[in-house]
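Service request form, structural biology core

Requester: graduate student, group of Dr. S.
Request type: structure prediction, single chain
Budget code: on file
Notes: please return the result as structure tokens.

Sequence provided:
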Amino acid sequence: MDACTASVWPRLEPCLLGALQVAPPSKLSMHYLRKMACYVRTREGCFPRLGWHMWRHIACGKLQLAEELAWLFFETFDLLTPRSPEEKLEWAEALSQSQSPRELDRQRSKLYVDTLQFLLFLYLQQLNRVSLRTSLIGEEWPSPRARSPSSSSEREAKTSSSSKNWDDQAHLTFMQTHLSELLELLVEPGELSGSGQALRDSQLSAEAVQALSLLLEGSASRGRTVHPLHRLLGRAPLQAQAGYSKISRSYSLQQLQNWLRQTLTLNPFGMSTCLRSGKKLAWALQVEGAMKRAKIARNTHMAPPGSRVVLMSQVYKQTLAKDSEKLAGANVKLHRCSEAFIYLLSPLRSATLDKCRNSTVVLGPVETSVHVQSCENVRLVCVAGRLAIGASSRCTVHALTPTRPLLLPGNTALTLGPFHTHYPTLEDHMASVGLAVVPNLWDQPLLYSPDGPAPGPSCYRILPPEEFCTLVVPFQMEGDTCEVPGGLPPAYQQAVEAREQRVQEWQRTVKDAHLNKEQRRQFQALVEQKFHQWLLETGKRQELDSLLPPTIGQPNPTDHSQSTCSAEPSLQHQKDQASQQAAGRTPTVC
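Core staff response, request fulfilled:
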């Protein structure tokens, strides 16, 4: 009989969703985390669960972090904590009823996290730290053709633009390189030397190994079932290999570390495997060869929850729309999409827009976070647990989010506006991921500045109501949602009503002119000419033309798998509606 073997790999979600996409504050280095690990073990009310008030005391009083930064880390960790949609909605309701800072702080004080897992989470922020060593060997050295950044924020933006959150090879390297320090944070103070480092004969408790399951999972003997690390080590043969003692009910630190180094491998559900062997999808129209370089792949047919990935790369001059179970609960990455119109109308786990240009992206409710990185002239519409934007320019984001939008270094000319669209199943999708209409902090961004003075608000603006128009999702679907969830903020609702009033006045003016039949014909032709000229000048023409299905846009449609969306739209009606309402203009004279 073969000996029991195991494979262990870094979990995707903590690296993807937990690690901020920029270098961490210097006070989250190992030196300070060692002190924090000893402090929380020896202070009442800190272990095994850490509350907001004690973490704020440690972060602000000991680590000298700003309170808003301390809450950012605490809240980000909480986003990773498994909770039912009902629990999330109850928490949102309680926050929305907090009318003063004191009431809000009282509500936050009810939030607790696992202390050891939170320590590992804080250490994981080192994932995107710029390493001098790797810079010297060339991995992170700037291109000789690149312009030298003129400010610290530009330098930070340059390094953060190549974040490692999606890079499964970087996750493995990080775990292999820092495994000893990660384990050291879990060792009890009595097992440490005078300098705070682990002794060679140190022991690690079963509770500490359970905390390590935040970062590691695996399978036994080439099995397909994925287990958290502590459950994987519940097998007697593997316990023996990892140095478990039934007498002390603990693991030998040295033996466990050696076993982990031998079993650590690349995540079989990561981006590398998805690109190599994931299912290829054809969800977009192939028009004039525009899809020849596009790649759309997924592993949702085989990956466990939390590791489901959908990649859409280099979608160019296309409308891509999907409402599919293949998207539900997936981590979606849109990479280098250009001049595209993308509608992903399903509840998602997370979404990342990376290096996209001149595109419109409309997302279904995103349970955790939406991250926009190195994008230019992108319009994003989303409901999300967290929104983060870094190194992007001239992007407009219409969001509904219960947390403050996180603006990372390197942004220029961002515009933040209220969520302004709906589709028939939107509210059902929001309920399924635990997102409510309140609180909604879309207009209260947090400018990330861990170790220096906070940058000014010049990198963003709040969309003026006079520039506001609602967005129409141009597809017919079944469902009950028929308006923007929660409604529009009063100033924006008034702007919409004022625009509708001007249209009505225009129609009355035309009617009162008593034009004869020939005059009406000429006037109609003039208005249509001006309208189509406006469509071309603004790029709206491409958006409308891309809605034509293969049966209209192609002479011989034979491949029905190349459909634009899973719910077949009534295209001509929706095209007219999109041109009239989404653009805020009308081509008719009366």
